[in-house]
């Protein structure tokens, strides 16, 4: 039996767990980061890589902007830029109703100080001549960015390790108990951790660690279909998204075009499967060829998805447990956790070290599910195979 | 009537289709290639005048027999050439043709998708003018082109001498055949090879014909590097006595035997298991080729067995389908076929000892050699990624971090060498290094195949 005494045990070595461990270590805390597989191999390593500011939930902007500031300083923070690129983000409308929608999103963004350009068809033709005719208007935000998700989480965990975090891979947390002020974390290896705080950052697998302490959330696992093409001459500089979610695409400077699209598909966290139905791949290929006609002859070389936790109001759970002092939840990121990841880690470290954070997190409290919650419009549109919620 | 679909129009697929057609099942035969026959027995493109008798040599009779067998069932099957199966979902195949994408559903599926070359990189292998050995044959048989005028055939494979001879017969200058397996290993494998005396004799006749023609035939060489400024100019080898030798050439055909094209089988749900002889992950089948519910595998796509085994195993898999559908019960014939397939595949295992995959060479590769030519990832980049803290020691993770195997070919070329590199650098058994997972599409498909047929 290996017994470790620590200040904090972080369950889950995704982006959220790794950033949390990193910031805690910088504040001098002894941290054990426990990952059942290897760090950054789940949602955090398979996602699309968008660091999008446009069109977010209004109450999330303070957190989101704090996170973007960290992304922009990534190289200073971890010594590696992980292909962070301020590509800008083009939010595209196909008709007047969608134009109203992006204009409304833009108003919200602008109220938080984000600069948005409103582009009509003629301006689009001048600035982004490769866009298909179907796009009648768009809003452009220059501060939105992208980064390489395959690289970021391992890089953050590596620096956390060098700052003294004990990173344990291939070790699944089985049981978390609390006696007095101490948590006992048992695993499927001979490792046991005793600590004063537990951060539940176990992604789509997180629910059992909430339910063990008498609270719950209607979390269910799913993922959007994605694909990547062969390298093509580089011409799509911004990240491109259509309001209906049929196309979320970007091109990296080495030439490959990456695409994600809705509707999402149910995934299986037990068997570790995130299927991509071929019909969705075909539908997305067709949509992409309409939005960027020059890609018609470009070849798709691989599809994939990931296992992400979603909640019916399309907002994550972030914050202290409402039953158990010392337990902090951060899961169910509903497809937008990559962008806010560093911000979430920073806030959680503040909660643990300072007892509170300045960043408003109340919309994300786990207790909200004790009442009837409003099901998000996105939730209704963006999934096809919603499994019975647990 | 049951809907039986056969994927692959090589010897395995054709013999399966013949057996099914004989029972009036009207099978669907899908083949990515435009001309029937598969890799070994492909009919030349219409309009291409190739002397197939000269090209096929001792195999000409089998070639004609297979093509004739196909011609005789042509109107009893639904044959769809130029049709790539790119994904499988449940009992539906997704296919892509020049016209677009569509689906084909099946009650039983026989996959006979064949094999491709296995490559071990060496310095200079990404220079223009270096081809896979099978690619050198394909360009000859499909397009009637040589890969160069002065060609070196290198590696270790039963096809090495065959390909060299085919090139010679049609007028190319074969500057050398450099086999990396020592002659002694071949002699030691001879008793087992004698289990298929005709095939062994054929191999020996290729060798002697080349020697008689004065082609330098080297055994037990180490391939040191391929040189050239902007394309191949020479190959440098160390011969079995330790001397460095240089062969000027304008093309190199490189190959270390074949590896099954098992991607579709894996997508269809076949269980993959590690095979210590070939050091590859192969789909698991029973003696008749069953790999799961309604899934049957035949030919080189399961385990390398050569053309004769492909024909027999195709027929056998079709018999298994017929018997599972309750159509035939002729057990005695199946037993004979089963024995034949078993014997032919065992023979290939002996060949694997006579033509050795140079697993150990990967340790000696210098850091600047490219391992993944699609993404241009070097051996050194992979070693460095593995060496850092929390570095990956499993091939899919190495791929995620380095991009090795992430390009157009999806690791079909670099996969085996990557497995060796990861295992040797991590100091773990190769089966612990894992294998690259497959995903659709099994080969690249253009966005335009997805159009809803209006343009
Ligand atoms: C296909 C896809 C595309 C996406 N695109 C974007 C995008 O463009 N922009 C964006 O902002 N967001 C995007 N997201 C969402 C984003 O990836 C996630 O919100 C984010 O990665 C969540 O991080 P995480 O650390 O909570 O989860 P994860 O990365 O899933 O990490 C949780 C970790 O916990 C581990 N774990 C689970 N149970 C245990 C246990 N019992 N013991 C030990 N460890 C355990 C898991 O193995 C896993 O590594 C996308 C998601 C998907 C799936
Ligand atoms: C490049 C190459 C050249 C060879 N040359 C010779 C030779 O000259 N002499 C010799 O004896 N042996 C040769 N071989 C060995 C050969 O593999 C076997 O002798 C024999 O052809 C195996 O028969 P098969 O039916 O299993 O597969 P193959 O003959 O390989 O037939 C498989 C068929 O399946 C098709 N296919 C594969 N994937 C898909 C897909 N996803 N969708 C649709 N169709 C698909 C292929 O296009 C091919 O037509 C060669 C092998 C290779 C790889």
UniProtKB/TrEMBL annotation, chain A:
InterPro entries: FAD-dep_OxRdtase, FAD/NAD-bd_sf. GO terms for cellular component: cytoplasm. Coiled coil: none annotated. The keyword Oxidoreductase applies. Keywords: Oxidoreductase. Pfam families: DAO (PF01266). Residues 7-350 form the FAD dependent oxidoreductase domain. GO terms for molecular function: oxidoreductase activity. PANTHER family: FAD-DEPENDENT OXIDOREDUCTASE DOMAIN-CONTAINING PROTEIN 1, SARCOSINE DEHYDROGENASE-RELATED. This is FAD-binding oxidoreductase.
TrEMBL record, chain B:
Keywords: Oxidoreductase. It comes from the Bacteria. The keyword Protein biosynthesis does not apply. Residues 3-313 form the FAD/NAD(P)-binding domain. Signal peptide: none annotated. Pfam families: Fer2_BFD, Pyr_redox_2. GO terms for molecular function: oxidoreductase activity. It comes from Microvirga brassicacearum. Residues 372-423 form the BFD-like [2Fe-2S]-binding domain. This is FAD/NAD(P)-binding oxidoreductase. The keyword Oxidoreductase applies. InterPro entries: BFD-like_2Fe2S-bd_dom (IPR007419), BFD-like_2Fe2S-bd_dom_sf (IPR041854), FAD/NAD-bd_sf (IPR036188), FAD/NAD-binding_dom (IPR023753), Metab_Enz_Cyan_OpOx_G3PDH (IPR051691), Opine_Oxase_asu/HCN_bsu (IPR017224).
């Amino acid at each position: 039996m290996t017994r470790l005494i620590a200040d904090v045990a972080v369950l889950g070595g995704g982006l959220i767990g790794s950033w949390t461990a990193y910031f805690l270590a910088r504040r001098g805390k002894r941290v054990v980061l426990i990952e059942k597989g290897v760090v950054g191999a789940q949602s955090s390593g398979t996602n699309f890589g968008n660091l999008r500011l446009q069109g977010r939930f209004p109450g999330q902007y303070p957190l989101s902007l704090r996170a973007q500031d960290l992304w922009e300083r990534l190289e200073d923070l971890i010594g590696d830029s992980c292909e962070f690129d301020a590509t800008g983000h083009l939010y595209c409308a196909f008709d007047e109703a969608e134009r109203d929608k992006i204009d409304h999103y833009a108003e919200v963004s602008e109220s938080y100080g984000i600069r948005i350009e409103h582009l009509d068809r003629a301006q689009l033709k001048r600035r982004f001549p490769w866009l298909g005719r179907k796009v009648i208007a768009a809003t452009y935000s220059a501060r939105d960015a992208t980064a390489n998700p395959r690289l970021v989480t391992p890089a953050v965990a590596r620096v956390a390790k060098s700052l003294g975090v004990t990173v344990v891979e291939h070790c699944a947390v089985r049981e978390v108990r609390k006696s007095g002020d101490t948590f006992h974390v048992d695993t499927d290896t001979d490792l046991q951790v005793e600590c004063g705080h537990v951060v539940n950052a176990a992604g789509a697998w997180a629910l059992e660690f909430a339910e063990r302490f008498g609270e719950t959330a209607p979390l269910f696992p799913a993922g959007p279909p994605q694909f990547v093409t062969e390298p093509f001459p580089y011409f799509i500089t911004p990240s491109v998204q259509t309001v209906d979610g049929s196309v979320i695409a970007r091109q990296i400077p080495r030439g490959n075009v990456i695409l994600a699209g809705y509707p999402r598909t149910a995934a299986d966290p037990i068997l570790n499967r995130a299927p991509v139905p071929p019909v969705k791949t075909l539908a997305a290929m067709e949509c992409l060829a309409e939005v960027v006609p020059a890609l018609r002859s470009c070849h798709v070389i691989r599809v994939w998805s990931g296992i992400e936790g979603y909640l019916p109001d399309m907002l994550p759970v972030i914050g202290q447990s409402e039953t158990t002092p010392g337990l902090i939840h951060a899961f169910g990121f509903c497809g937008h956790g990559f962008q806010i990841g560093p911000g979430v880690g920073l806030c959680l470290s503040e909660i643990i070290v300072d007892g509170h954070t300045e960043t408003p997190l109340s919309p994300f409290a786990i207790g909200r599910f004790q009442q009837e919650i409003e099901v998000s419009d996105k939730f209704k549109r963006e999934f096809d195979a919603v499994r019975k919620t647990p | 009537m049951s809907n039986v679909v056969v994927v692959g129009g090589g010897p395995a697929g054709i013999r399966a289709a013949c057996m099914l057609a004989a029972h009036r099942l009207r099978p669907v035969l899908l083949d990515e290639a435009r001309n029937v026959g598969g890799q070994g027995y492909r009919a030349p493109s219409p309009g291409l005048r190739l002397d197939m008798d000269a090209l096929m040599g001792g195999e000409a009779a089998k070639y004609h027999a297979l093509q004739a067998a196909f011609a005789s069932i042509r109107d009893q099957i639904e044959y769809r050439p130029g049709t790539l199966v790119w994904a499988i979902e449940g009992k539906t195949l997704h296919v892509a043709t020049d016209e677009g994408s569509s689906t084909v559903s099946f009650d039983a599926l026989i996959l006979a998708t064949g094999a491709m070359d296995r490559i071990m990189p060496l310095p200079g292998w990404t220079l223009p003018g270096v081809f896979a050995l099978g690619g050198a044959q394909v360009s000859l048989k499909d397009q009637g082109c040589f890969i160069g005028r002065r060609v070196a055939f290198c590696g270790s494979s039963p096809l090495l001498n065959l390909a060299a001879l085919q090139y010679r017969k049609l007028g190319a200058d074969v500057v050398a055949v450099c086999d990396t397996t020592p002659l002694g290993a071949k002699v030691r494998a001879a008793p087992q090879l004698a289990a298929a005396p005709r095939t062994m004799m054929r191999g020996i006749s290729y060798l002697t014909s080349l020697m008689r023609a004065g082609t330098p035939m080297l055994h037990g060489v180490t391939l040191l590097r391929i040189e050239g400024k902007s394309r191949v100019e020479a190959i440098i080898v160390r011969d079995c006595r330790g001397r460095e030798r240089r062969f000027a050439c304008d093309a190199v055909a490189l190959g270390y035997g074949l590896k099954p094209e098992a991607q579709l089988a894996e997508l269809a749900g076949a269980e993959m298991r590690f095979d210590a002889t070939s050091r590859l992950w192969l789909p698991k089948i029973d003696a008749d080729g069953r790999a799961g519910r309604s899934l049957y595998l035949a030919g080189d796509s399961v385990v390398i067995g050569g053309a004769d085994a492909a024909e027999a195993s195709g027929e056998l898999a079709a018999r298994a389908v017929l018997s599972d559908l309750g159509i035939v019960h002729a057990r005695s014939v199946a037993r004979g076929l089963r024995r034949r397939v078993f014997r032919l595949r065992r023979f290939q295992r002996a060949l694997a000892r006579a033509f050795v995959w140079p697993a150990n060479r990967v340790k000696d590769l210098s850091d600047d050699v490219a391992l993944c030519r699609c993404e241009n990832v070097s051996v050194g980049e992979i070693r460095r990624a593995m060496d850092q803290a929390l570095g990956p020691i499993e091939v899919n993770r190495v791929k995620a971090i380095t991009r090795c195997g992430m390009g157009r070919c999806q690791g079909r070329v670099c996969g085996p060498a990557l497995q060796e590199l990861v295992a040797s650098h991590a100091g773990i058994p190769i089966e612990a290094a894992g294998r690259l997972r497959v995903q659709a599409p099994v080969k690249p498909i253009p966005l335009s195949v997805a159009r809803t047929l209006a343009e």
